[in-house]
Every structure is written in C-alpha cells, then in structure tokens.
C-alpha cells in the first residue's frame, strides 16, 4: 500500500492516520473501488432472457489491514488502545483516502472493531484488521464545490485617483444563467441558497435542460436567506432570519421539484416575480464517485 494514506475520524473528533510509515502501517485496503449492484428484473411469458426494471447499489464494505510496531511494550499497548477508541462501533465517522492527487472521503460505520494478532515470538509487532460499512456507497470530494449564479464583483483598485464623477467599487454580475459541472459518476443532490439584498418576491431556480424548477412562494426581505437541500433522504427548506433558522417547507410551490445534478453539465437560471436584481444565488454540491 505504498503512498496510500487512510485517515479515519469519528464523530467525537478522534482520528488516526494509517499510511506507509509506522506506528500504523497500512498493509491492505479492500473495497475502495467497484460497486456491487442490486438488479431487479422481470420476465414475460415466452420471453428469452429478462427485462431489467431497476438497478441500485448495495452498501460498500471496507476492510483495513495494518501493522502496529513499537519496541516499547507499554507504547504498543497504548497504540492498540487508540485504535479501539477511534474505531468505536457506537460512533460513526468519515474515512478519507489519499493517493497522489486523489483525495476522497466516505461516510462509515464500524462493522467490526479492530481485532489484533501477534506473530510468534515477535513482541514489538501487532497486526490489526478493521471492518467498516458505508451505507451510502459513493465516495465524495474532500471539499464541497460551489457555484455562484448572481454575485458582486470587486472593482476597487490601488493606486487610486479621486474624480468628481465618483468611483465604482463593485458591480453586479449580469448573467442569470450558470453551468454547474458535476464531475461525479452519478447524479447528486445539492444545497441552494437564495439571499435577499432587498425585497425579493417568490425566488426560483429553473433547470433549462429538464424544464424542472424549484420555487419559493414568499416575499423575502433584506438579509433573509432561504436554503433548499435536495439530497436523497435529506430534503429540507430552511429560513435564516437574523441568525434564527426555522422550517420553511410550507412556502414551497406545490409544482416544485427537488432538483438534482446529472453527471456533466447542468444549466440553471434563477428568477423572481419581483426584485430579481436584489437576489443572490449560491449552489453547493458534492460529486459522487463509484470508486477511488
């Protein structure tokens, strides 16, 4: 496992690095690539073969095999205890994979806490095995991607000479359309933020390719932010007003769709019934990958 680094951090903030150096040496990492599918099919009377009706991916099973080495027996025991503490089956976490420029992470549950073995007559080495399961089988980028549709650009530079006509210190980007590139292998959800700089009535986001849209039937005032999350099993609409976050599901237009990003290019246009020049829109997303 030369030059591969595995970093596991549980939800308590406890972490361990397993790489090509001691004290935690990575010997094998299994399950990082490929994805096993559940295939549902039907068969008609007299039909040769079958017709595939649905395909979905199973959870991903991961296994880490490594070695702890330390000439001091008490230190070896402490390093063993740290692995047991970090890979706690009662606490979920994130596993991060690094190899060269490739850096991906995946949400995990410890399926089997670390088990240890010691080679015969070798008291400074412990072999360990950890089994994990990822309910969502897709890997993600380490950092979230962001696309800004309507923003302000700075135009204030030095050196500066004051003139009677005044000075432009910024300007609003005029485009109402943006291409959001999903570099992942499958479609993914996203988080859309509508920000009101002044009064904005009924903001919306429209997918030019699919003709689907998401619309909020609300008059927003300056400073309000409405965040729409469209991830599978995590769909939310929230209003942030003066730092107080509340549920905003009741303002969804009944014909709205929780928009997804298809692999490749996705063209979006934002709109509002009134006050479109006072609307800023940001899109955050995590592309999903079938392997590392």
TrEMBL record:
- Residues annotated as domain Siphovirus-type tail component C-terminal: 184-289
The record's section on InterPro entries has:
Siphovirus-type_tail_C, Siphovirus-type_tail_N
* Phylogenetic classification of the source organism: Bacteria, Bacillati, Bacillota, Tissierellia, Tissierellales
Highest taxon above the source species:
Bacteria
* Siphovirus-type tail component RIFT-related domain boundaries: 12-112
Name the chain's protein: Phage tail family protein
**Signal peptide extent:** none
Instruction: Name the Gene3D superfamilies for this protein.
Output: 2.60.120.860
């Amino acid at each position: 496992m030369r030059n591969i680094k595995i970093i596991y951090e549980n939800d308590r903030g406890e972490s361990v690095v397993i790489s090509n150096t001691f004290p935690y040496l990575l010997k094998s990492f299994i399950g990082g690539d490929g994805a096993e599918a559940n295939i549902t099919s039907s068969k008609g009377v007299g039909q040769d073969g079958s017709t595939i009706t649905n395909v979905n991916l199973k959870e991903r099973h991961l296994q880490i095999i490594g070695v702890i080495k330390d000439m001091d027996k008490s230190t070896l025991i402490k390093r063993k205890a740290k692995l047991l503490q970090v890979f706690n089956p009662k606490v979920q976490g994130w596993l991060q994979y690094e190899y060269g420029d490739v850096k991906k992470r995946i949400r995990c549950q410890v399926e089997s806490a670390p088990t240890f073995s010691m080679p015969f007559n070798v008291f400074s080495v412990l072999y360990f095995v950890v089994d994990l399961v990822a309910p969502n089988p897709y890997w993600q980028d380490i950092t979230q991607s962001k696309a800004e549709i309507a923003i302000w650009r700075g135009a204030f530079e030095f050196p500066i000479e004051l003139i009677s006509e005044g000075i432009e210190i910024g300007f609003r980007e005029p485009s109402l359309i943006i291409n959001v590139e999903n570099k992942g292998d499958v479609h993914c959800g996203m988080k859309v933020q509508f920000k009101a700089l002044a009064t904005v009535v009924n903001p919306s986001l429209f997918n030019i390719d699919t003709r689907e849209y998401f619309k909020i039937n609300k008059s927003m005032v300056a400073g309000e932010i409405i965040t729409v999350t469209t991830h599978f099993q995590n769909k939310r609409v929230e209003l942030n007003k003066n730092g107080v976050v509340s549920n905003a599901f009741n303002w969804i237009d009944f014909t709205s769709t929780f928009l997804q990003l298809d692999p490749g290019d996705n063209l979006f246009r934002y709109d509002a019934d009134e006050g479109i020049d006072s609307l800023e829109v940001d899109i955050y997303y995590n592309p999903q990958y079938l392997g590392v």
